[in-house]
Specification:
Protein TONSOKU, 48 helices, TPR-like_helical_dom_sf, TPR repeat, LRR_dom_sf, six-stranded mixed beta sheet, about 1300 residues, single chain, alpha/beta
Length: about 1300
């Protein structure tokens, strides 16, 4: 479905059509041809290429018959451009060459430059789409360089108007920079493109010029490849903004594609999908860009598949950790080797999955673990494989020195065991690193050495055609692309063709090593499938495997540099993609194979990846080609548009035109051929069509339609339906209800919405996306009843003021003075989404004369939550105000999750819920009921009993903090029976509860077959209850037990350890906060291997563990069996040194993700150590400029050289603390609140936090005593402890 077109574009087309018709009727051939050309350009800009071609042919036919030859210049150029966009290269070349010939005849240097540029562009496209047509890249190089020389000549000519050819000169830099990107010369590309931007600034080219857009586009690609994420994102977003401002929808779509690629590589999958969806909507608005839209949709599916692989990787990580624990327990026993082999199989699977989703830091981690396993197995072949894996990870992270070091280690070890194939792979990979680092001669020598070694291997009776082919293709790439040695490239190509012809049937086969057999291969082959790896990969483990093939010849490995966008040629085809990283059999990422093959055997690990030629989607054209070579989805780039101006033909003084020769694909010498061009010179003669002013649309009958709502005001909610906060008005912008007006005006479709931003965003924490939701709810509530009756909620896409997108609340606030009384902010509606429950809720509000709660409306509007999940916590609902919602639920009935927690509801609501639950449809579906944090009493006991008995599918019930006591607890116990589906029960913070009621409940819960999690937080437990609890834990298989604030004491806590440690337990979550525990409990806990190896979240906050207990905690965290992800030890009097001990322990812990160390330091202690901190404290350059690839080890002695702290003791402590934080690589959330750290010290700590794996992802929440360090995607606060779930 096409997007709604801008009125000015429609008007231009209509006026051009009228002018063409009038010229034809008057038999004015010159005007007829001109207007046909104008119409063709308008249609081209709308993406209607086929229709545009029809009109441009009319222009050509009339011009060639009736007009002078010079009139055909612009016509031929336009036809060449449109054929290029349609990928009809043969026709494009015909018209482009004709354009050049006529420009030469007319001695028109400007048109010659445009023709030369467009010819270079076409040959560039041919190169990208071809298998091995490297002559086209030579032609593209020659044409682009000649175009730059000619553009400079024209620009500097005294006969030309200064600045008249600046744009073409800038575009020439862009074109050559893009070509350097394709040839993997990133540093050179950066220099050329930055020079282009410099010229833009020097010549004062306007900020929203399309020439700047193209430069930003390609610079975004350069920095994306260099893994400089922030700079890449800056340039990509500038490209998007400019394209949006100038109405270039295709360029904007491709900008979003690039943004999605960036986010995909950073594993920001939700954000990547969002960017691709924006690109998809833009592409669908263009008539003839179906291929682009389809490929963007394909990319979205690829990201979703990658998300599945990430989930599989996390599961396999858990399996690997279990194997590590089993291996540690089997040390010195006969089964130790068996577990090591299973570990090796599991790590192979993790290596493969990390390749699939481009997590190169994980690949490095897994490679080093494989190295350790191989050393324990004394298997040199596996050890060599691990060296290549580590080298590959460093290569992908662009740390070429370390990559070379590890590849050299791999080569030396393969040489030691006489493995020629491994030596060849190491040499080929070394060549790829040298090529990327600019040492082309060294790279070619390495490729030749790899080919020589694999040829020796074949001579000793082995079939290694895939590795041999990989070496030859890299040699061919070097000769042709790096050295322009056509003769040597031709000879190498003949060898490649011969090898393919003779070995074609074996290219996809996995080769077996003949010289040496892995010491562990036979042992692993003899094991049963079950013994090999607990959950290791099978060929069907991941669907993304089918998404990742990069070569029809199955000689390519996973390569991060092949972008997610499947928007261009499906593979960078054999000739121009050198192989780098692995055996050719890894054409599609190696399916996770059985461990019967070591990495060097499986084509997946020692993969030789081809050197790709990257192409990024052009602003100007849709470069896409369906992958006809592979059944796999391939992600591709698209080249940024090579633009030339659409200005009128300009004449300059005579100047020599550089002659350019086309390179024949087969000849050994160059033969002269005419140049070609790449511009879009429009034929129009300053025929500007007037743009229509924006009309002020009337909004009729609105106030009357919503009169009922305006008479009720929910004054308790800042975002409620109060008319003083917002109102929809007629087009008279000045007619506002407030004097002076405090409203900002938003234009939605044809309606004006007046909003008081200060009231809506009273807390100051709304994001721009949350503001869109607020506006959508307000707008929906104010719609006439007829429009609301369909239950369609608007989804707002963009906010725009004067053509500029507003992407932050700061931008919105900065403009509100202009959008008050004078103008408005335009809000675009992307879609209308059905929300039946919300419609019913508002209908019942109107029926019951109850004002709708905007908080409830917003939660019901949530597009991420389906209508069968009603989640409305913390909405200040009372029994009366909740009545419309409950009526809606009764009518809707199809509910699986109902969350009414943290409201002001009473027993009346529970009684109503009981009636709803008696509905046959509901009681068969309801699975989760959460009414915690409401004002209930024991009068609700019978209703709760009925709900438990009737809702057969209910597995989770949360009635924490509801002011209920023993009576209700007893009713709940009486309602349970052995067939109950209940698995999770939360009863905490309800008092008083008698021991008898609690014992009765525990006995009933023990009879439930599937019960998993129990929360008794805040309920005081007596000794008999603790005894019953121990028996219950012994009889059940618990995943969570929350006993915080129960005062059970040390003895009872230690008593619980044994039943919780039995083999059948799967305890994941344990809360013993504020239970009076000391360090002795930590030691006892650490001795129970089965318990600490399973718990993922442990809360020991509020216990007097003291500084002495920190040693026990540190020991627990260093234990390789410890799998804790979340540890809470706030208010434990640990002291500064205790905090330091715990953080130091995390350098060897690869599991802990969240750590709460708040309120552990006394004021006197911090003053004694720090005194008054110098406000000029600064961090050294080492801390400010981290390198993710260099932070494997601490290098702590250098980290704080620039810190100006008076005493050596303070300096030492800060240094140790920052180094400990830096080395805690897996930590995602760290709470250091209320520990007395000054602002200066907090800055130092955040700088340390921002290093290593968290570089580019770190964020902080620091205000007053709050010090929360976290990463993107993790909430550091705002989640109620009772609502926290693993």
């Amino acid at each position: 479905m096409r997007r709604k077109e801008e009125p000015s574009q429609q008007q231009q087309l209509a006026e051009a059509m009228r002018a063409y018709k009038a010229a034809k009727e008057e038999d004015n051939q010159q005007e007829e041809a001109r207007w046909a050309n104008v119409i063709g350009h308008i249609l081209k800009n709308r993406g209607e290429y086929v229709e545009a071609l029809r009109w441009l042919r009319k222009d050509y036919d009339v011009s060639s018959k009736y007009l002078p030859e010079k009139q055909l210049l612009a016509t031929c150029q336009s036809l060449g451009e449109i054929f290029l966009r349609l990928h009809q290269y043969k026709d494009a070349l015909i018209y482009q060459k004709k354009h050049l010939e006529m420009a030469k005849d007319a001695n028109d240097l400007a048109e010659q430059q445009r023709a030369i540029t467009q010819l270079g562009r076409t040959y560039h496209e041919i190169f990208l789409k071809s298998d091995d047509d490297h002559s086209s890249i030579q032609n593209a190089k020659n044409y682009f360089r000649s175009a730059m020389k000619l553009a400079q000549t024209i620009k500097d000519s005294p006969l030309s108007e200064k600045g008249s050819f600046i744009k073409e000169y800038i575009d020439a830099h862009n074109n050559i920079g893009m070509l350097e990107i394709d040839l993997d010369n990133l540093d050179e590309a950066e220099k050329i493109l930055m020079k282009g931007l410099q010229i833009c600034n020097e010549e004062e080219v306007k900020e929203d010029d399309d020439a700047r857009s193209r430069l930003h586009h390609n610079l975004g690609i350069v920095y994306l490849e260099l893994r400089r994420w922030k700079i890449a994102e800056t340039h990509i977003k500038k490209d998007i903004v400019i394209c949006n401002q100038i109405g270039h929808h295709q360029g904007e779509a491709k900008g979003y594609v690039n943004l999605g690629e960036l986010q995909y590589r950073k594993q920001m999958y939700d954000e990547a999908i969002s960017s691709y969806q924006k690109a998809f909507q833009l592409a669908k608005s263009l008539e003839d860009e179906d291929m682009l839209a389809n490929q963007i949709a394909q990319n979205i599916e690829t990201v979703r598949e990658a998300m599945k692989v990430m989930d599989e990787l996390k599961k396999e990580e858990q399996n690997f950790k279990k194997l590590e624990r089993n291996t540690n327990m089997a040390k010195g026993k006969d089964t130790e080797r068996k577990y090591l082999l299973k570990q090796n199989a599991s790590i192979d699977c993790l290596i493969e999955k990390s390749r699939i989703i481009f997590t190169w830091t994980k690949l490095r981690e897994y490679g080093k673990k494989k190295k350790s396993i191989a050393s324990d197995l004394c298997d040199k072949e596996k050890l060599s494989d691990s060296f290549l894996v580590i080298g590959e990870s460093y290569q992908k992270l662009r740390n070429f020195n370390k990559a070379l070091k590890w590849y050299r280690k791999g080569w030396e070890t393969f040489e030691l065991i006489g493995n020629l194939e491994g030596q060849a792979l190491a040499k080929i990979n070394t060549g790829n690193v040298l090529d990327s680092d600019g040492d082309w001669i060294g790279a070619l020598d390495a490729f030749k050495e790899g080919y020589r070694q694999v040829s020796l291997k074949i001579a000793v009776n082995a079939n290694l055609s895939s590795v041999q082919l990989s070496a030859l293709e890299n040699i061919h790439y070097s000769h042709m692309i790096r050295f322009d040695d056509i003769e040597e490239a031709r000879k190498t190509k003949l060898l490649i063709d011969q090898l393919k012809q003779s070995k074609n049937e074996d290219l996809n086969a996995e080769d077996h090593l003949g010289d040496c057999c892995s010491e562990t291969k036979i042992e692993l082959d003899t094991q049963s499938t079950d013994e090999r790896s607990d959950g290791s990969c099978s060929p069907n483990t991941s669907k993304v495997n089918s998404l990742t093939s990069k070569s029809k010849d199955s000689v390519e490995d996973w390569n991060e540099n092949i972008p997610l966008r499947s928007l261009l040629h499906s593979n960078k085809k054999i000739g121009k993609q050198r192989t780098a990283h692995g055996v050719a059999a890894n054409a599609s990422p190696r399916e996770c194979v059985s461990p019967s093959q070591s990495l060097s055997r499986s084509a997946g690990s020692l993969t030789v990846n081809r050197k790709r030629v990257r192409v990024i989607l052009s602003d100007d054209e849709d470069e896409d080609e369906k992958d006809h070579c592979s059944e796999h989805i391939v992600r591709k780039y698209t080249p940024e548009g090579i633009a030339t101006s659409d200005e009128l033909t300009r004449r300059c003084g005579s100047s020599p035109v550089p002659e350019v020769q086309d390179v024949s694909p087969v000849a050994t010498s160059c033969t002269p051929v005419n140049l070609e061009k790449s511009t879009c010179s429009s034929k129009s003669r300053s025929s500007k069509l007037g743009a229509q002013d924006l009309k002020k649309f009337k909004f009729t009958d609105t106030c009357a339609a919503v009169g009922n709502f305006e008479t009720h005001v929910n004054s308790t909610c800042a975002g409620s339906c109060n008319p003083s906060h917002y109102e929809i008005c007629t087009p008279d912008v000045h007619s506002c209800c407030d004097e002076p007006c405090q409203h900002t005006i938003f234009k939605i479709d044809e309606d004006l919405l007046h909003v008081d931003l200060d009231l809506i965003n009273a807390c100051g924490k709304l994001s721009i996306e949350q503001m869109k939701i607020e506006l959508a709810c307000m707008y929906y509530l104010r719609l006439p009843r007829q429009k609301r009756s369909r239950g369609l909620v608007p989804v707002f896409q963009h906010m725009k003021y004067n053509g500029r997108f507003l992407e932050s609340m700061e931008a919105l606030y900065s403009l509100r003075e202009y959008a008050k009384e004078k103008d408005w902010i335009e809000v675009s509606v992307g879609a209308m989404v059905p929300k039946n429950v919300m419609k019913l809720y508002i209908d019942f509000c109107e029926e019951l004369a109850e004002p709708p709660s905007l908080k409830v409306v917003k939660t019901l509007c949530n597009l991420e939550v389906s209508d069968d999940k009603i989640i409305v916590p913390d909405c200040e609902l009372r029994d009366v105000s909740a009545a419309p919602l409950l009526n809606a639920l009764q009518l809707h009935s199809m509910i699986t999750v109902l969350d009414l927690s943290h409201n002001l509801l009473g027993n009346g609501t529970v009684e109503k819920l009981k009636q709803i639950c008696e509905c046959p449809v509901l009681y068969a579906r309801l699975e989760v009921l959460n009414i915690s944090g409401n004002s209930l009493t024991d009068a609700c006991a019978s209703s709760m009993s009925t709900i438990l008995q009737t809702c057969k599918a209910l597995y989770s019930l949360d009635i924490e903090n509801c002011s209920i006591s023993s009576r209700t607890i007893q009713k709940v116990a009486d309602s349970l029976h052995s067939e109950s589906a209940l698995t999770h029960l939360y009863l905490g913070y309800n008092n008083p509860v008698s021991g008898n009621a609690m014992i009765s409940l525990l006995c009933k819960l023990a009879t439930l077959n599937r019960f998993q999690e129990l929360s008794l937080n805040g309920i005081k437990l007596s000794k008999p209850v603790v005894d019953s609890l121990c028996q219950f834990a012994k009889d059940s298989c618990l995943s969570g037990l929350m006993l915080g604030n129960t005062n059970i004491g040390m003895e009872a806590a230690i008593q619980l350890i044994k039943p919780l440690s039995k083999d059948t337990q799967e305890l994941l979550r344990l809360d013993l906060s504020f239970c009076g525990l000391t360090r002795d409990y930590i030691y006892s806990l650490g001795n129970e291997v089965a318990l600490i190896s399973g718990i993922l979240e442990l809360n020991l906050g509020g216990n007097p563990i003291m500084e002495e207990g920190s040693i026990a905690l540190a020991s627990l965290l260093r234990n390789p069996l410890c799998c804790l992800r979340v540890l809470v030890v706030n208010k434990c009097s640990l002291g500064l040194m205790g905090i330091l001990d715990i953080l130091k322990a995390l350098s060897t812990n690869s599991y802990l993700e969240e750590l709460n160390l708040a309120e552990n330091v006394k004021l006197g202690e911090i003053q004694t150590l720090f005194g008054a901190i110098d406000p000029m404290v600064q961090i050294s350059k080492d801390l400010n400029q981290p390198d993710e690839n260099e932070l494997e080890v601490a290098d702590s002695e250098d980290d704080l050289e620039g810190v100006d702290i008076c005493s050596s003791e303070k300096k030492k402590f800060i240094s140790e603390l920052t180094n400990s934080i830096t080395m805690a690589r897996e930590l995602k959330v760290l709470n250091l609140s209320c520990n007395g750290f000054s602002k200066e010290v907090t800055e130092i700590l955040f700088t340390a936090w921002s290093l290593n794996a968290r570089a580019g992802l770190a964020q902080r929440h620091v205000e007053e005593n709050t010090v929360h360090l976290s990463v993107q995607g993790r909430k550091c606060c705002g989640i109620k402890s009772c609502c926290r779930r693993i």
